[in-house]
Amino acid sequence: MTTQFDVIVLGAGPAGYVAAIRAAQLGLRTACVDNFKTAAGKASLGGTCLNVGCIPSKALLESSENFERVRHKFGAHGITVKEASVDVAAMQARKQKIVDQFTGGIAGLFRKNKVASYHGTGAFKSAAGGVYDIDVTAAATSESLQAKHVIVATGSIPRALPFAPFDNDVILDNAGALALTEVPKRLGVIGAGVIGLEMGSVWRRLGAEVTILEALPGFLLAADEAVAKEALKAFTRDAGFVIRTGVTVTAVRKGNGDVAVEYAIEGKTQQAEFDKLIVAVGRSPNTAGLNAGAVGLKLAANGAVEADDNCRTNLPNVYAVGDVVRGPMLAHKAMEEGVAAAERIVGQAAHVNLDHVPWVIYTSPEIAWVGRTEQSLREAGIAYRSGQFPFMANGRARALGETVGFVKMLADAKTDRILGVHIVGPFASELISEAVVAMEFDASSEDIARIVHAHPSLAEVMHEAALAVDKRTLHI
Ligand code: NAD
């Protein structure tokens, strides 16, 4: 028997579950198909983000940061704690409880919005008369669904190095890095990207010696150069990370409960031994199971679904959203694309501005930015003015004891329109929202400078950075 829908969403990660909810809100009969299973073999909605990504990593980052505070920061407040210790099992149980609440919450949202939820791998079977046939295959079952509209939201998978396949025992992907049951003494990380830095932070704070090996010649080259410099200083000087850039990893050999990594740096071959190795060298679009060829869905060379700015694919009424298409692999970008695809199906004029997608790295200090970096403006020959203000000169940051970092604002030299905002420091993840809103409304640095910011608050650093663009800071 074939079950009919108006729209079938493939994938229940942030792109897919949000697309399904929005489609159902708009009155479309909606199915959402997802094949994620937990390590225990249980179907679980929410994709990588909720199960083995954003949410569990934030839980462990918070727990490990608390441990770090107790050990290294409470003393300054006059609080002494003797022999703080970590119960990794309890920390992991707390993380899992948070994950289960959210993944279960999506099942509840699906019921509330009348989204039909299917567990299994959804694949194109055929297309005829403007209708797509989708097979849903699970271990013991197989079902047939049909709809005029399909939203592909199958996400991404960790990219493995050919000589270091994941075993999630010693060589870990994002899921393995989140699931360690004890703190490794020596942790190696290949890739100084978002996952490497966040997961490296968790285990370093809990006591691991962390070495990060990065292929690119510099650190965090995607970030603004001043932010990358400040962050590198904080991570290596204050936090004790060992970060090597310009590294070519040539071999990874598993030993008896440990792993040896051979790499070349400045023409010299070196070897390092670790108890665990996280490989976080990026992710690849997850399209292998889609059977795209059956309907002629066009894929790019890297496996991504080809899609235009509005997430339309080469097939009529087939959209692709989130990590499976071009653009940053970020949950918030994915969610907005999911909403927009559902709205376009019913003929609404949706809008997602990829130029103003914020980036956040949840390290300590946190890093967040939106828009252009100073080096990209320089390279493009765009005349700009720059204003920077340190957290050190902010009352709230001093009271928090979190004074590392700054906010930097870049504005067009002629029009004063804000072109980019870069933050390294406390709660950068929250502060960046003001900049995103400002840029979406085409604000100038003067607009931010004239807005009343609460005192004392970290947001005043944004205010002062705007004043700094015009060289008129008040507090330095
Ligand atoms: P990434 O692209 O952020 O970083 C990968 C890093 O690995 C890069 O610096 C790259 O130069 C380096 N690299 C690549 N090949 C290498 C090699 N052979 N040897 C050494 N270094 C190598 O990717 P990621 O950290 O794996 O994260 C995957 C995706 O998940 C990213 O798109 C990221 O945006 C997303 N993510 C986002 C967040 C967040 O928003 N806070 C958190 C985690 C993951």
Structure notes:
This protein is α/β, with parallel strands linked by helices and 476 residues long. It folds into three domains: 2-158 and 284-355, FAD/NAD(P)-binding domain; 171-281, FAD/NAD(P)-binding domain, CATH 3.50.50; 365-469, Enolase-like, domain 1 (2-Layer Sandwich), CATH 3.30.390.30. Helices cover 32% and strands 26% of the residues. It has helices at 14-25, 47-52, 54-73, 88-113, 174-178, 194-205, 225-238, 331-345, 374-380, 395-400, 428-440, 445-450, 459-469, and strands at 2-10, 30-34, 116-119, 121-128, 131-137, 142-152, 156-158, 171-172, 186-190, 209-213, 242-244, 247-254, 259-265, 268-274, 276-279, 283-285, 318-320, 359-361, 366-371, 384-390, 406-412, 418-425. Strands 1, 2, 3, 4, 5, 6 and 17 form a seven-stranded mixed β-sheet that branches. A five-stranded parallel β-sheet has the order 8-15-9-10-11. The chain has a five-stranded antiparallel β-sheet with strand order 18-19-22-21-20, with helices on both faces. Helix 6 links the parallel strand 9 and strand 10 (209-213). The structure holds nicotinamide-adenine-dinucleotide (NAD). Residues 161, 190-196, 198, 213-216, 247, 249, 280-283, 329-330, 360-362 line the site of nicotinamide-adenine-dinucleotide.
Q: What are the defining features of this structure?
A:
476 residues; alpha/beta; FAD/NAD(P)-binding domain; Enolase-like, domain 1; 3 domains; seven-stranded mixed β-sheet; five-stranded parallel β-sheet; 32% helix; 26% strand; binds nicotinamide-adenine-dinucleotide
